[in-house]
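Dear support,

I submitted the protein below through the web form. The confirmation email said the job was done, but the results page showed an empty box. After a refresh the structure appeared. I'm attaching both so you can tell me whether what I see now is the final result or a partial one.
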Amino acid sequence: MVKDGDYLRLKLDNLQIEKAGQKYIVPLSDIATVTLEGKILTLTTRLLAKFAQYNIAVIVCDNKYVPCGVYMGFGQYHRTAKRNLEQISWDEVLRKEAWTRIISQKMINQKDVLIACNLEKERINKMEELIANIQFADITNREGHCAKVYFNSLYGQDFTREQDCLQNDAMNYGYTIIRAYMARLVTSLGLIPTLGVFHRNEFNSFNLVDDLMEPFRPLMDWYIVDKLLPKYKKYLSWEMRCDLINFMNQSYSHKGRKTTIDIVMLDYVNSFIKLMQYGRDKELLAITLEGMRGVQ
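What the results page shows now:
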C-alpha cells in the first residue's frame, strides 16, 4: 500500500518510491498488486505501462480509503484470442455445472466458518440442509438463503450487509482485495472478465471475476473474525487495511504442501480453465477453510 505524499517512478524494472526524502526500490517482478490511497500521490505513465506489462493490478481508493477503481493491463497473454474463443464457445450445461460446484464450495466454506466459530448446532444444521438441497445451477437460490443464515449467525439477527459498521467495512475492503487479485489472474491468463459463468450483468466489467472469487469470500470472513476484529475494535484503520491486504500472503495447505492464498488462487483459475477446455474429466480445485486453518 502506498499512502500520502509518495512519488512513484520507474527505475529500470523496479518501482521506486520516494517519501519524506527517502527512496525505496521494489522489483516489479515481486509485485502482484499496488494499492494507492491518500491526497498527494504522483506516478508516471511509464510506470503505469510497466505495471500493465508485468500484470500488476493497481487499486485506487477514495477519500474514505474505500477501494473504488482498478487499473490492469490488457491482452498480455500470448494466446488470448484462442482462450477467448474457448470461453465464448463453452457448453452451457457445463457452464451451469461449474457454477453449481463454485457456489456449493462457497456455502460449504460458510458452514465451516460457523463451525470454527463454535456457533449453535441448530444454525449449522440449517446450513447443511441448504447445502444438501442445492439444485443444478442453484436455480432455487439456496446460496441467498444460506447467506442470510450465515451473516445473522456471525454478527447477530439484526445485522445486514448494508449497515455502517466495522464488520462491513472490513469485509467490503477485503473482498475488493480478493476481487482485484482475481481480476489480475483472469486477465493475465487470457480470459474475458466480462463473460461470467453465472453473473451476466451488462454493466459489470468483472462478471467472471465475481464468479470465481466466491469460494474465497468465507476465507476472508474467517480471517477478519479470527485475526482482525479481536485486534481492531473501532474503525478501519491504516493498520487494519494493511492487514487486509496481507490476506493474500496467508498460508494455505494444498495437496500436502504449504503455499499461500495468492498461489492457490492461481492454481484455482488454472483448474477452471482446464475444466472449460476438457469438460467433466477435469475437477475444479476445491478451496476449503481447512486449507487455511490446517497449516502447521
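Response: this is the final, complete result; the empty box was a page-load delay. DSSP finds eleven helices and ten strands in the chain.
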